[in-house]
Amino acid sequence: MSRRHVSLLVKLIIAGVLLGWLVRSGSLDFGALAIFFEHPALLVANLGVFVGTYLIAAVRWRLLLQVAGIELPLRRAIQLTLTAAFFNVVAPGNIGGDVVKAIYVARDLPPNQRPSVYLIGFLDRLVAVGGLVAVAVALNVGSRVFSDDSQLSEPTTAIAILALVTIVLPVVGLGLVRRFAKDDDGSTDGMSRVATLRGRLIAAAKLVSARPGALALSLVLSIAIHACGIIWFSAVASAVLDQHVSVPQMAAVYPLGMLSVLLPISYAGFGVGHIAFEQLFAMIGLTGGANVINVYLIGLLVPCLFGVIPYLLLKREAGAPGEAELPST
To answer: How far apart are the first and last CA of the chain?
Structure first.
C-alpha cells in the first residue's frame, strides 16, 4: 500500500471516528439530509449554487493563468474545473483537483512555462482564501454598525486576525517584493521546503506585480463566490434549524468553519468541520451546527461526482495523468 493510500485510509478513519462520536452524542443527525426531499426548491437552489460558483471559479483560474501568459479557452477551463471538483471528492489531499487540472494544462505547454501553471494554482488558493475573509469582514463590519449583538464579538475578532494574515500581510509583502526582490528569480531548485515556499511566493508576487488589475478582478470573483456561499449557508441553516438565521450571523462563523474543513486531517474535512461548526454555532447562541454543515457539505460534494463526465472525456482525448506526472508532495 502506497503512502498516499495510507494517508487516505487514516483520514477516512479519523472522519469516521469523529462522525460516529457526534452521532452517539446526539449532535449529528443524518436524517436532516431529508430537507432536500421535503423542500425540492432547496435541491434546485443547491444545484444552482454549485453550478454558479464553479463557473465563476473557472473564470477566475483562467484569468490568473493569463497573468502568467497562458491562454486557456473558457470551455476548457470549465471542463478542467469540474474535473478538479471530482478529484477533490474521490482523492482529497492526495492527487487533489488543483494538481490534476494543472497537469492537463502544463503538459500541453513548453517546459519553461510549466512551473507557472502550478504557481498559478498556489496563487488561486491564496486568492480564494482572501476572498472568503474579505466578504466575511465586510458583512461583519456591516452587522456591527447596525447591531450591537455581543455574541458576535469572539468570531469577529478571529476574522479580523484572519484578515490581517490573509489580506493585509500579503499586500504588504507584495509591495516589499516589488521593491526589494527585483533581482531574485524565485528559483526553488535544491532548496528546503521553507526556501521553496519563499521562492514560490516571490515568483507569484512578480507575476501579480505585472498585472495587479487581474489580481484585483480575481479577488472580486472570489468575493462573489463566497458571498453566494454564505448566503446559501444561511438559507440551509434556516431550513435545517427551522428558524431564521441571518446572513451576518453566518458570516461570523462560516469563514472559520470552512478553514477547518480545509485542514488536511480527515476526508474532505468531515468530522473536523462538523465539530468546528458545532462549537462556532454555540458561540453565537445557536445549536445544530454539525447538522447544518453536514447538509451543506454533502449538498455541494455530491454534484462534484458528476465531474467524472468531463474527466472521462479528457481521458478519451489525451489519456489520464500518470504517477510520473504528479509533483511530489
So the answer is: 17
Model confidence over 275-295: pLDDT tens digits? 999 999 998 889 999 999 999
**Quick one: residue 321, left, alpha or beta (phi over 0 = left, psi -120 to 50 = alpha)?**
beta
Whether the CB-CB separation of 230 and 135 falls below 8 Å is answered with yes
pTM (predicted TM-score): 0.81
C-alpha span between 28 and 34 (Å, rounded):
14
Average of pLDDT values for 192-221? 73
Contact 262, 153 (CB under 8 A): no
92 HSE (CA, 13 A, CB side): 21
Q: Are 291 and 29 in contact (CB under 8 A)?
A: yes
14, pLDDT greater than 80: yes
In contact, 141 and 157? CB cutoff 8 Å: no
Using only C-alpha atoms, the chain has a radius of gyration, in whole angstroms, of: 20
Which range, 100-104, 106-110, 293-297, is most confident? 293-297
109: pLDDT confidence band, cut at 50, 70 and 90?
Answer: confident
Are 64 and 120 a contacting pair, CB within 8 Å? Answer: yes
Alpha carbon distances (Å) from 211 to 14, 34, 66, 277: 43, 47, 10, 38
Query: Of the candidates 271, 266, 265, which has an alpha carbon nearest to the alpha carbon of residue 294?
Result: 271
Q: Could you tell me the maximum CA-CA distance found in the chain, to the nearest angstrom?
A: 61
CA distance linking residue 81 with residue 55, whole number of Å: 8
What's the sign of the alpha-carbon dihedral 143, 168, 60, 126?
negative
What is the Cα–Cα distance from 197 to 49, expressed in whole angstroms? Answer: 34
**Encoded amino acid at 14, one letter:** I
3-state helix, strand, coil in the chain (%, to 5): 80, 0, 20
